[in-house]
Amino acid sequence: MPRRLPPLALSRRAELFAHLHAMEQAGVPVDRALASLNLGPRHEPALQRLRQMVGAGRDLASSGQLSGVFTPLESSLLRAAQEAGALAHIHQQLAQRYEEQARQAGELRSRLLMPAGVLLLALLVNPLPALVAGSLGVGGYLLAVLLPLLWLLAVLFVVRLAWQRLQRRRAERPGPLDDLLLALPVLGSLLRRADIRNFCDSLGLLLEAGMPALDALPRACNAVSNPRLRRDFASLAPRVAAGQSLVRAFDGLSFAGKSMLIGVLNTGEATGRPGEALLRFARMQAQQLASQQQMLATWLPRLFYLGVAGWMAYGLLTGGGFFPTLPAELAGR
C-alpha cells in the first residue's frame, strides 16, 4: 500500500487544474499532459502513480483518487465531467476556485501577522509582573512563556490535520460530526453552500450532456462531501422516478437558496434547458460563497486581535502590572 503523502497546497491545486485545463483546450491527451506536469519533489511519487494508472488505461478521476493526487470531491466532479464530456470546464472551474482560495488564504495569513505579534507580546509581558516581584524565577518565566505557545502550536497542528482528514473522508452514513459541522456558525453555512454549488454544477453538466435526470441525479450526489446533505439530495431521484418534475422534487427539500433555485429551474424547464439553469444557479452560489469567504477573511483577524488584546490587558491588570499588591506584613497594618 503506497505511503499517504501530504495533500497539495491550494496554490499547487490551482496550478494542477490550470495545467490540465490548458492541455485539454489544446487537445493534448491526458497522459502527455501529465508527463509535462511538475508539482515539486514532495508530490512526485503520487504524480508518478497517477501517470502509471492513466497509462494503464484507467480514467483520470479514478486514477487521481487512488494515487492520492485528487480529493474524493475532485474525483467525483471529474467523474461527472467525464460522463458529461466537459472535463475542460471542470478543470477551469477548479483552477479558478483554488486560485481564489489560495489568494484569500494568503490575505488571511498576512492579516493575522499583527494579532500573532500581539499574542507573542502578551505571552512575554503577562508573566513579567511576577518576575519583577520575585515570585517567579527566570526558568519559571521562560516556562510561562513557552508552554502556552507550545500548546497553541499543538492545537493549530491538530486542527489543520483534522481538517485535511475531514476533506478526504468519504462516509456513507451521516453521523454527529456531520451535523455538528453544518450547525457551526459561519463555517456551516460555507460548507452547505459549497456542497449545494457542487451538486447543482455536476447535475447541470450531466443534463446539458443529454444524460437523463434519473441517471444524472445519483452521479451528482457523489459531488456532495457532507453525508447528511448527500442523503437529502439522494431523495430527489425516487421523487423524479415517481413522476415528479425536477422543480417539484427540489421543492420537497429544505436548504438555503431554494426559492432562488426553484425560480431559475422553473424558467429552465419551461425552455427545455434545466441543465443550463442549474449551471447558472451554481455560478450564483459560487459568487455568494466567495463573498462570504471574503467577509470571513476580513473579520476573523479583527476578532482575533481584539481577543488577544483583551487577554493581554486582563493579564496586566490582574497580575500586578498596574496595581502592585502590598506585601502581606504591610497590608495588615
Automatic annotation (TrEMBL):
<keyword id="KW-0472">Membrane</keyword>
<keyword id="KW-0812">Transmembrane</keyword>
<comment type="similarity">
    <text>Belongs to the GSP F family.</text>
</comment>
<feature type="domain" description="Type II secretion system protein GspF">
    <location>
        <begin position="199"/>
        <end position="316"/>
    </location>
</feature>
<feature type="transmembrane region" description="Helical">
    <location>
        <begin position="303"/>
        <end position="323"/>
    </location>
</feature>
<protein>
    <submittedName>
        <fullName>Type II secretion system F family protein</fullName>
    </submittedName>
</protein>
<keyword id="KW-1133">Transmembrane helix</keyword>
<dbReference type="InterPro" id="IPR018076">
    <property type="entry name" value="T2SS_GspF_dom"/>
</dbReference>
<dbReference type="InterPro" id="IPR003004">
    <property type="entry name" value="GspF/PilC"/>
</dbReference>
<dbReference type="Pfam" id="PF00482">
    <property type="entry name" value="T2SSF"/>
</dbReference>
<feature type="transmembrane region" description="Helical">
    <location>
        <begin position="138"/>
        <end position="163"/>
    </location>
</feature>
<dbReference type="InterPro" id="IPR042094">
    <property type="entry name" value="T2SS_GspF_sf"/>
</dbReference>
<feature type="transmembrane region" description="Helical">
    <location>
        <begin position="112"/>
        <end position="132"/>
    </location>
</feature>
<keyword id="KW-1003">Cell membrane</keyword>
<feature type="domain" description="Type II secretion system protein GspF">
    <location>
        <begin position="20"/>
        <end position="125"/>
    </location>
</feature>
